Automatic annotation (TrEMBL):
UniProt protein name: MOT14 protein
Pfam families reported in the protein's UniProt record: MFS_1
Localization: Membrane
Species this protein is from: Vidua chalybeata (Village indigobird)
Gene Ontology CC terms, in alphabetical order: membrane
GO molecular-function terms, A-Z: monocarboxylic acid transmembrane transporter activity
Length: 515
């Protein structure tokens, strides 16, 4: 098992290990403005993920208004939640070109527009486009920057910071459910969506708070570490070896690209200086040309980073452990979503509706989920604890609960299992931390975009698959068993690949030593 990318052997051109001089870190890393970033991310989770958890209120209104089947109407909510995550890789391109702040502000406007246009829906298919696609893409454009910015601003308290920010999902589920229920009762669902659209404009404010760090600050973040000099030297040699053997992102292409960009901008500045004696019209043209040139350079640089991460010779997919992480993500998220969707029906089958009405099992999951994220984050930040090991233990606990849930036929038994599901699923706050350890901060946006895309596919098709299994067997038991077994396959991939990677690395070290 391992705790960081140094152990795995992937560095992706990170400058964290260059030089031994102590550099004074930016006071905003692990403190100062970093906590404003956490607040911004927390509010984003309330407004986006919390709203999506409360869509059951609107789903009932749409059923009554349009008189369509439950399956067709449910696709509106599924599209919104799925697209929010599935568009992750493409949002990574926007972040590479425009930065997190600009991407989030545009996403906030698009999300609000989706809510407002949905208020004028004449049928369910209209909602597919306005709410499912438009609001879903807008949500994705805000959600990914919110996660990435927390990863950039924190080094020693990353897990805690991600845990605190993602608790907004649990709080949002309660707040948005109550708000939408009140708005629908007082003003009708159309006005409720219009008002919610206006509230969603606050996502632009959250995006404005995402002040970017300079490249120098990002480098300093990894120069200042708590590791001993011995471990640092070991990581250096291990990373160098892996770069040679696997062709991980080098600095030469980037230096050539930067040199070309500087040459373009330098020629523009030379022309501008030479043309100062010209007319005002020519000077305006030169300024416009300079602005367009700078924009072109920014877009080229961002696209080059995005393209190299996905399709280059040293793409993220050359990291076998990261590929195993993607396979795990394809199966994991549905195991968390399926209980939320089908628990009410299971309660009804077991004649436990009276107890569930007093304290719903889904509420137990949501409440304990909040505490799970914070507690697992605190534990992972302890110096003697490996984030990766905490992540794996939480996964093992969750898959065990999924497999045993159908065996519980009393309210107390179901409540205990649901509490464990809520707590262990708190590992969601560790996913950005694990991803950053695998690929580094520079590639976090693109890498995490792939992970949440896999989660989105899982969330989109998991619940319908469980319903299809129920239609065949007339039981939900097999839905949980199959989901749990697929989840276990993903966990096994996470366990096997690091071991293979370490073995290959040791063999190459032995061969080089013999030579």
């Amino acid at each position: 098992m391992y705790a960081s990318r140094e152990d795995i052997g992937y560095d992706f051109g990170d400058d964290s290990k260059v030089g031994n001089k102590p550099i004074k870190p930016n006071p905003n890393i692990d403190g100062g403005w970093a906590w404003m970033i956490v607040l911004s991310s927390f509010l984003v989770h309330i407004l986006i993920m919390g709203s999506q958890m409360a869509l059951g209120i609107l789903n009932m209104e749409w059923l009554e208004e349009f008189n369509q089947s439950r399956g067709l109407t449910a696709w509106v909510s599924s599209l919104s939640m799925g697209i929010t995550l599935i568009v992750g890789p493409f949002i990574g391109l926007f972040i590479s070109m425009c930065g997190c702040r600009t991407t989030a502000i545009i996403g906030g406007i698009l999300n609000a527009l989706g809510w407002i246009l949905s208020a004028y829906a004449s049928n369910v298919h209209y909602l597919f486009l306005t709410f499912g696609v438009t609001a879903g893409i807008g949500s994705g454009m805000v959600y990914l920057p919110a996660v990435v910015m927390v990863g950039q601003y924190f080094q020693n308290r990353r897990a805690l910071a991600q845990g605190l920010s993602t608790t907004g999902t649990g709080f949002g589920a309660f707040l948005m459910t109550a708000l939408l229920k009140y708005l629908c009762t007082e003003f009708g669902w159309r006005n409720a969506m219009f008002i919610q659209g206006a509230i969603s404009l606050n996502l632009c404010v959250c995006g404005a708070l995402m002040r970017p760090l300079s490249p120098k600050d990002l480098r300093e973040k990894y120069v200042v570490r708590n590791d001993s000099e011995e471990n640092r030297a070991k990581a250096l040699s291990h990373s160098t070896e892996t770069i040679k053997s696997n062709g991980v992102l080098g600095e030469e292409p980037e230096k050539k690209e930067e040199a070309a960009n500087e040459e373009v901008l330098g020629s523009v500045q030379h022309i501008e200086i030479g043309g100062k004696s010209g007319s005002g019209r020519s000077m305006s043209g030169l300024r416009l040309f300079k602005t367009v040139s700078q924009l072109t350079v920014t877009v080229r640089k961002g696209f080059a980073l995005w393209y190299s991460s996905y399709f280059g010779a040293a793409s993220l997919f050359t990291n076998r452990v990261f590929v195993a992480f993607i396979i795990w993500a394809l199966f994991a998220y549905s195991s968390f979503v399926i209980p939320f969707i089908h628990l009410p029906e299971i309660v009804k089958q077991y004649n436990l509706s009276r107890q569930d009405n007093v304290f719903p099992l889904t509420s137990i999951i949501a409440i304990v989920h909040i505490f799970g994220k914070v507690i697992l984050g605190i534990i992972s930040d302890l110096p003697c604890i490996s984030t990766w090991n905490v992540f794996l233990m939480a996964n093992f606990t969750l898959v065990t609960c999924i497999l045993t849930l159908p065996l519980m036929q009393t309210y107390i038994g179901l409540a205990v299992v649901c509490a464990l599901i809520g707590f262990s699923s708190g590992y969601f706050s560790l996913m950005p931390v694990v991803t950053e350890d695998l690929v580094g901060t520079k590639h976090l946006a693109n890498a995490y975009g792939i992970i949440i895309c896999a989660n989105g596919i899982s969330a989109l098709f998991g619940p319908p698959f469980a319903g299809w299994i129920y239609d065949i067997t007339q039981k939900y038991d097999f839905s949980f068993y199959i989901a749990g077994l697929l989840y276990m396959v993903g966990i096994i991939f996470l366990l096997i690949q690091p071991c293979i990677q370490k073995k290959q690395s040791r063999e190459k070290s032995t061969e080089e030593a013999q030579v």
